[in-house]
Fold this sequence. Notes:
19% strand; 5-stranded mixed beta sheet; alpha+beta; 16 helices; Growth Hormone, Chain: A; 676 residues; globular; 4 domains; single chain
Amino acid sequence: MEISCDEKCKDDDLLKLKKTRNKYPVSVVIMLILKWIEGVSFSGIHGFLIFYFISSFSLFNHESVGYQIFKTFTIILAFISATITDSWLGKFNTFIGSTVLLLVGHIIVIIKETITEDLILSRFLVILGIVVVTVASSIDIPCMLCLVADQFPEHQVKERRKIFSFLYLSISFGIFFTNISIPSILDKKCSYRDCYMMYFGIPAGIVTFNLVTLIFSKKFFFIETPEGSSLLKILKCIQFAIKNHLRYCSWKIPRRDHWLDWASEKFSKSHIHEVKLFFRMLIFISPFPIFWALVEKQEMFWNLQAKKMNLTVAGKSWEIRDLQIIFSAVLIIIFILMELFFIPFLQRPGLNFSLIKKILLGMVLIYLSSLISFFLELQIENAPNFRAGSKESLLRIINVADSSFNVTFYQNKSHNAYSTMASSFEITDYMKISLDSDHQYFQIILFSPKMVKEETILLEQEKTYAMILTGTTKFYSVLLFQDRTDKSRNAYAFVRIINTLKRDVFIILSLKALDLEKFNGTSPELRVKIKKNINLLCKVENKNHLINLGPLSVGASYLIFIIQDIPELEIWKIQLLEMKNISIGWQFVQFFIMGLGKYLLIVSCSEYFYYKAPRGMKVTMQALWLSTLFSSSLILSFVTYISLLPEWTEYFLLSNLLLLVIICFLIISYYYQETL
Length: 676
């Protein structure tokens, strides 16, 4: 059914499509189901590849310039692909192509897992895999949104709006399902190759099923034939308008209402109107990159805030990961109830919001969430510290080893007391461990796909511990020390340096030198005065290095791990956050309001950019809008550190910046509506 005709002809063809309940085309139902299945597959492989990508390249962490350059490259490539889709390939063909790319990404990962011995080839496949999968997803989402919306005639506005909402829910549910499945696979005690091959092999089969289903269901889709590059026509119109304006730039020649009207000698009024609309949409979209950067910053604050809170909810101790999954499940249920009952109930008496009002409402809800976060942080600052009680200890695991471990604690050599997953270069939540007396020995078994190791530790009541896992495949070790639980109120930070290298390290201070022995040599706690740039001089086998401590918070405690010295010295810095006696359940309010705001904002913007985009640029404008979601971390890279300020001040500044961006958007949307 590949056609190119006017709107009336298009509506006639759309009415012929096979529908369910005489409302929703079968093609849309197929897309919804496949998108949920694909979301399950994509979220997992993308997460694993990002993990491999960052762990394989020390220069490519979330904050590094290299990682930001990579993200910029994928955004630009996605925009170019969207332009090609609108101009020549068409939405359905591009959607098929993105599914093929996703399948190729799975195959690359499977190949990588079979040749893990070759380090250079393995790293190359990691880079290739993450590029292929990321580009596939960045092409897939804008193309899919436009393809689904194309299946509805103009009069089916309500049905189209519901489909935009359910597509968002379908993607969210896929991510939610992945967040449940990945930990269960990581916790599974099977061989390294079997576990990961099973995880990557099953999604590869899912993507293959989706691809075959799409190809055989093509007859159910309305496929509009592209009519050439609209972006190129817009650029030619702009070029001619500028040249024509400069050619007749004289006071004797009457002025025109808009500078683009100088192109009227060559281009039609409708085309010039589309060019004007394109520029208005660029102005309309301009606040969003900064807005999403602030939202991402707030979500980073939430993670830090959660680590300082008591993980007991309803009398039961939880992990942050489990609570976030529960919060996400509640949000998805609430969104479904809203779409099925609450919104139809409001529309019965004629109460309805325009898309711009929904966008503004979503932004305001996100701002309200940041305010709640700010007030909660004030409560946390004033709350007493959470401490272990009688016959109790608190313990968290810091994994600096090159492998993830399943850590199991045994009491009396037989009773399985506690078990948790400690991922490489991550810190677990505090575990409350019950003791039979005022002190007790525990047997620990560290299980990874590469080895099994046993250790014994001694825990005492009413004390807080940090257990550090270090080493490589040939040599793993466990280091236990008592954790600092109180935050000092003076102008100093506290730093402890740990040497995980195979060589001794000498730290040279102003008054003395510290000798850190190889394999977990630990310095005493150093009191460091806060200033803008803090460097420590160290020596490894007659080679001098500088340890850049970066920004430090007043009164905070840090662990500095020396993890590499060839070719350059590298460290991993973590902040030991104090744990307050205030329940993490209070975070649900801001989590819920933020989720509701993002839901309204993303769904409304996706719908808005489909309706208002110039003809022949639907996918391009969707890609441009979605790029603002993923470009936020690029802006965060250039934000000046404000860590010298108290944490509640950072929350306060964030809330005010969000309000400022909302006011700017309000002004832009007002004038944008006036000029339509």
